[in-house]
Fold:
Amino acid sequence: MAGPGGDMQWCFSQVKGAIDDDVAEADIISTVEFNHTGELLATGDKGGRVVIFQQEIENKNQPQFRSEYNVYSTFQSHEPEFDYLKSLEIEEKINKIRWLPQKNAAQFLLSTNDKTIKLWKISERDKRPEGYNLKEDDGRYKDPNSITSLQVPVLIPMDLMVEASPRRVFANAHTYHINSVSVNSDNETYLSADDLRVNLWHLEITDRSFNIVDIKPANMEELTEVITASEFHPHQCNTLVYSSSKGTIRLCDMRASALCDKHSKLFEEPENPSNRSFFSEIISSISDVKFSHNGRYMMTRDYLSVKIWDLNMENRPVETYQVHEYLRSKLCSLYENDCIFDKFECCWNGNDSVVMTGSYNNFFRMFDRGHRRDITLEASRENSKPMQVLKPRKVCTGGKRKKDEISVDSLDFNKKILHTAWHPQDNIIAVATTNNLYIFQDKVN
Amino acid sequence: MSDEEVKSLEEQEMQDKVISPEKTEEAKLKARYPNLGARPVGPDFLRKRLQKGQKYFDSGDYNMAKAKIKNKQLPSTPTEKTEITGEHIPTPQDLPQRKTSIVASKLAV
Structure:
């Protein structure tokens, strides 16, 4: 990956989380997201907790060390629930976090589990009032008869306190499990998508939601596909896309009609019917869809590849990158151990020149679109010395295994990197293994 | 089938394996699970996916059983905690407790 001055090299910066191998289920990281400036990095986990890290101001004395991310705030976003009417257990796992663009001193994010979306306000408090007339400093009320004079309370500085409070709860709009949340560029509305429906919300209104896509068939016996992901266009507030378990992406224009069941564009790569196998549909299921920052392209992730689509061309992707093609000859066992259903996410870098996605064995892959180069790196505690340069990894597919290569059969399929995020401006990436968060940055020469 | 026909069939199969590792894997899977349907992602599969999280506690059954037994003790909980459906009438003690994560995230240390 060429940056200014030659090939970019990725270095270890930080790792967060416990070292022990015994992972509690609640600690499994389920989502990672930078905010719009990259100053804040949020993670959600299976236990319903959100942890937000803040980038510390650059240390000017040591130019080779980039700023670090330290804990800024942590809170319990969702709790487990039981829907008694439907005998349904509602997990507290945070499926998605999406930041709102900053409008004032506070930060806002949307976090969602399977059923309920919440708008959280994260605000700083560094002053507190002192000298109330009717209360003592510890909060006890004064005896009114003892008050003989008036004082003006003053604000005095205090240690920084970061408070998170739920400002809105958007509930009861989804029969099925929410897989996506996306804030509109109008900064007033957002969408939430479940397996069969996409709903439109206004950030201020919690008791009402408009259904804009509904693919539920009248007869459930005719159900052939489900919605897997959905996103608003970064600039066009009327445009959204949703992907399906059959490998198609539909683009909808909300100006066309109130109910967007009829797509404006259908993106689908034709398949050679002679290549079709039992696994074809499963591995074509799209696990993530992301618009490029410039709004001209979108990227989809299916089980084995990453595809870049030009929004003006529906009949095939403009670029296809193989993430781990060597798994094609392992599909039988991947089906048996359910790994074939793993949902990998993908992300763009700030200028849309490089895309990244995760794989197994704690490997993650980057594809440099312009230079037609790709690299495989590993998130591991063994490569966690400060600023240690990551060595590219290679999987040996057969025949003689070279010294540093790892054979397909030695890959650990329990070590999956499903969630990755790229800083919106800089070359800083956040990579989530099962229960650890790694932060890597490019080497500043 | 003549010898020649058998031979050409075998060659075709070998060709298929070389061309399509996917088809080889499919054959492997079908050999292990002969009852596997042709369509892995049919309506049944999707419906199961939509119903994830379903637990069966019927308060009606529970109260009826309680009324029947009256003063007698409710059936004691089996050692196998997962068996709370079917013949066994679940009691509140049977249902797995969903505790919230009071412990702070280890990422925030």
Q: What stands out?
A: Residues 4-68 of chain B form one domain. Residues 16 and 22 of chain B are 10 Å apart (CA to CA).
